[in-house]
Amino acid sequence: MKRGHRRIETQLAVIGTGIAGFAASIFALKRGLDVAQFGHSGAMAYTTGYLDLLGVHGQRIRQDPWAALDELRRDEPQHPMSKLSNPTIRTAFDGFTDALCDMGIGYTKAGEQNLSGLLPNGVAKPTLSVPKTMLPGIAAREAGARTLVLDFDGLQGFSAKAFEVNFAERWPALKSARLTFPDMENRQVFPEVLARSLENRATQEALAGLIRPLLNGAEYVGVPAILGMHAPDEIRARMEHAIGATLFEIPTIPPAVPGIRLRECFERAFPDMGVKLEPQLKVSNVEFGRSGATLFLHGPMEDLEIEASAVLLATGRFLSGGLKSDQHRLSEPLLDLPILQPDGRQEWFRHEYLDPRGHPINRLGIEVDSAFRPVMPDGDPVNERLFAAGAILAHQDWVRQRSGAGLAIATAYAATEAAAAMLA
Ligand SMILES: Cc1cc2nc3c(=O)[nH]c(=O)nc-3n(C[C@H](O)[C@H](O)[C@H](O)COP(=O)(O)OP(=O)(O)OC[C@H]3O[C@@H](n4cnc5c(N)ncnc54)[C@H](O)[C@@H]3O)c2cc1C
């Protein structure tokens, strides 16, 4: 059968469907740009759903991310977020969380202080914005409130007992119990399957009916993140009413529902918002010309050729395929962008695995100028029409700094603003 061939023209081509890529498309739409976005699965399915800005700086856990950013600018001037002011980062963060709320997934607005987001293994971590379904759990822990946390027979990725035991000392009013999820007897179950099953009202009612008799005076009920895939806030409200106690979600280990939920939310909303989105296709080649770039993609049925006036690269790190390594060096596989790196891989890691300074390899990546354009070793932009954002950038260690989403959102905003200015 003859393969199809499709040609698309766009002002901005966003390469990558992680948080940076989706944020870039949102900001570009707000700027009135015509946007096309391409990518595949990546790190997003692994996220807790929390949006971190800066949770660790100076080897200290920070409750004050904005003050920590001021220190970051002083201590790490090459860090990508050091190129941006706090008001700019706040504008970006608010723009992203507002868009999520408009698309149907409630997120809290960034405050002055970090929140202590609950994690599946019964510890907490600093983060700036959380899904509204998870917020009551933070309040319950802070108040030491009477709380029942639940898991399910056969559930992989979350143990209510472990959660209870690890929090026991500081949260003695926390108790746990195990239920059999409706119609899921005698089998292994995964959070994604339970979330899809809770889209059904009858399942919501059946589960609420099982939880109610277990309350025993609990004011709060915590469940793993399974409250549906498409309208978690509505499902939470409905079940909370049926149970008679405040209900909240706790992230599970990856792959987890909150990231899949975000991805499906963008996939649902973007086409109506005007983004030409191909969420299952990777770009295989890019050629730059005088007035833009041509992107080449090969789908199962057809080939795509995209004519774009500007390109924003947000392809992530190793897990998502944005960076690669062999025995000798790191590379950026799509455009072969320069990566400033040591001569040999013996310099990639420190001797001690748990060295508090982290490993140098985690800070290698794409160097950009103040307009977030990838640069050559001499500092000149690789191409005036090429911009980059997110975890692929050099001079940051988002895992150690607890800054995954914040870095992605803030740099996507800055790169999109720069692209819009170039296209104006
Ligand atoms: C286990 C885990 C837990 C996390 N928890 C948190 C958390 O609690 N809080 C938080 O703030 N952040 C968290 N994150 C980080 C967050 O999910 C993102 O990794 C981070 O925000 C970086 O996003 P990104 O868009 O730059 O890259 P990624 O999310 O890695 O996305 C890169 C995208 O580029 C695509 N791509 C790669 N090559 C191509 C190509 N040639 N053509 C087209 N597309 C391509 C990939 O398919 C992918 O969609 C977590 C990540 C992991 C892995």
UniProtKB/TrEMBL annotation:
Pfam families: FAD_binding_2
GO cellular component, as recorded: glycerol-3-phosphate dehydrogenase (FAD) complex
Transmembrane segments: 12-29
Annotated ranges, domain FAD-dependent oxidoreductase 2 FAD-binding: 13-407
Listed InterPro entries: FAD-dep_OxRdtase_2_FAD-bd, FAD/NAD-bd_sf, G3P_DH_GlpB_su
Keyword annotations: Flavoprotein, FMN, Membrane, Oxidoreductase, Transmembrane, Transmembrane helix
Domain of life assignment: Bacteria
Signal peptide positions (record): none
A GO molecular function held by the record: glycerol-3-phosphate dehydrogenase (quinone) activity
Protein name: Glycerol 3-phosphate dehydrogenase (Quinone) subunit B
Organism of provenance: Aliiruegeria lutimaris
